[in-house]
Amino acid sequence: EVRSLVLRSEGSIDGTVRRMNGTPAAGVVIKLVRLLPDGSLAKASVDAVSTKSGGRFTMQVVPAGRFVLGVNLNERAKADQPWPPVFLSGSGVAVESLSAARVFELEPNEVVSEVEMQLPPPLPTRTVQVRIYWADGTPAVGASVWVLPEGQVAVPGTSQTAAQRENVVTLTLM
Question: Is this model's pTM higher than 0.85 or not?
Fold first, then answer.
């Protein structure tokens, strides 16, 4: 007879995220990312949850290991998540340096409660209007525009803005 045995850690982390002025921050995506043996961050997060009303979050079924918590850890800021990549520090204030981050060294089934994180101010946004023309000088009505970090390639179906009015596109940048 063959039997399977699955061992699983079911630890958890819960807490509250607040803005600089102390008000609860609902809708903030908090990520738990594993620290690799060399001290760098894993590329993928172990868990990601959005804060609820009151800025509360709960991560359940958290495995044992070494982790950091933060916002925008593996991506750029966006309009709905307008903060730079920041980590939770030991004092609860968000910091931009991994070396200043609070490291959670979780044992199997460990529960960490009442973690507090204070976000930095949101990044400023800029609005830019762009007029688009075809190579022959005619207005490019309906053309699509992507704003991407250097070295990335636009993929059809990803975020874009189309020139709706004449040949003008209005972009909001972080």
Answer: no
CA 52 remoteness from chain centre? 16
What percent of the chain has pLDDT above 90? 56
State the number of CA atoms in the 13 A half-sphere of 160 facing the CB.
Answer: 14
C-alpha to C-alpha distance for 64 and 164, rounded to whole angstroms = 51
62's CB contacts (< 8 A; 6+ apart) are: 9, 10, 11, 12, 13, 32, 46, 47, 106, 110
CA distances from 129 to 85, 110, 145, 173 (A): 27, 51, 11, 11
Q: Can you tell me the distance from the alpha carbon of 67 to that of 48, in angstroms, rounded to the nearest whole number? A: 13
Q: How many CB atoms lie within 10 A of CB 143?
A: 16
